[in-house]
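Quarterly update from the structural biology core.
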Amino acid sequence: MPSFISVESPKPEKKIEVPIPEKIERIEKPVVRLKDQYKKYRSPNSIEHFLKENEKVVAEGSLVDENKPATPFSQKQLDELWIGYVSKHIDTKNRSLYLTLNKRAPDLKDNFTLEFPVDNKIQKQQIESISLDLVNHLREKLNNFSIVLKIPVQEVKKEKTYYSAEERYKYLVDKYPIIDKLRKKLDLDIDY
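Predicted structure, tokenized:
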């Protein structure tokens, strides 16, 4: 049973009733897929392009500008500037970042590449978060805009912990065999 809407006409004495259809049918339009066309053209302003450029910046500290000076510097000069930069972070709330920076100094490699090894991925992320500021600071102070920072993750060798007296004694005998001779000569017992 159709419903009706009353609509007033421009003349006040007439009312028109218009039937409302119960179901409104939708006309489906064919979908044209242009996947191949999207693969051919990629905008230089795309998100993917931006992310790749951002990864380059993080990986290299910042992009190297070949038109700017590349004054040579020594490991000693680098160490002095590194200590100055680390001292800026002593008062920050991020104590672990300060400890990571203070643990070791970067090594100067070929082509002004600085290698700063860290112990784990978390430390690497912390250093990467400030790498742009850090590299720019070093570039300005050393007047060398070819500096690149690399942050490899080193595998830390975990030393075995000796808990019992027997384990400690065996470790010491392996390291210093004279201990066993001394124990026998003095007729000492080992409390296991």
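The longest strand covers residues 3-8.
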